[in-house]
Amino acid sequence: MRPENPADYPGNPANQSGGPLSDQHRQDLSQANQQARNILRAGNVAKFNGCVASIFAGLSLLSALFSVTALCVGAGLVIIARNEFHGRKLLRWFDPRGTQLLGWNQVGFIALLVAYSLWSIYTTLTGPSPYDVYIAEHPELTQMLGPIGPMYTTLTLVVYGGVIVLSVIFQGLNARYYFKKDKLLKAYLRQTPDWIVDLQRASL
Fold first, then answer.
1. C-alpha–C-alpha distance, residues 20 and 12, integer Å
2. Alpha-helix residue ranges (DSSP H) falling in 93-131
3. Phi first, then psi: what are they for 131, rounded to 5°?
């Protein structure tokens, strides 16, 4: 069993390498750093996702005065963005709660986008077209373009149907990526001496 502390290695006094770490310690640390970099790359993904969610949250909240739906979506995106940044912080501390939070946060992101898209489709199918009044005042548009109502309904179904499909694919792949990193992180913590993990945390 590998000792947890460098000083516990038999036959490797510090004066052999001229420093507190022996050559074996340095090799172990180098290998651990390489493995850690592979895990911590997920933090860059989380930072990107958090920034994107923050931008869309801001845009949604700007229109919240005119739409309750926009307010709900904006609030949901604020939570998504916060979880991405918080999960990144935990991940960089080698805390498995970070990868779990990031993975489930993407699942929640899917739920938010799907719910919004389904609500938009429902209101389009059951409510009046926003162009009805304008068309009534300009009947020549119907003569030029044909019935606009069915066109608007079809376009809505295509757009929000696409949002559903793309969110399941993109956010689903993100969730899968985070959960894979979760397995790597837990294996890393089991195999790596505590002194190395503590040193890596201190260097962040």
1. 10
2. 96-126
3. -100, 0
Kindly report the pTM of this predicted structure.
Answer: 0.79
**132 three-state secondary structure:** helix
Cβ–Cβ < 8 Å for 81, 96:
no
Read off the tokens for 49: 């996702």
If one counts every other C-beta atom within 10 angstroms of the C-beta of residue 49, the result is 25
- CB distance 133 to 75 below 8 Å: no
Which position has the token pair 């997920």? 42
At residue 27, φ and ψ (nearest 5 deg) are -65, -45
In the block, residue with structure tokens 């420093």: 19
pLDDT tens digits, one per residue of 68-118: 999 999 999 999 999 999 999 999 999 999 999 999 999 999 999 999 999
Q: What distance lies between CA 124 and its chain's CA centroid?
A: 30
Closest CA to 32 of 192, 201, 189: 192
Give every CB contact of residue 72 below 8 A, 6+ residues apart in sequence: none
Is the Cβ–Cβ distance between 11 and 201 less than 8 Å? no
In degrees and rounded to multiples of 5, residue 3 shows phi and psi of -60, 150
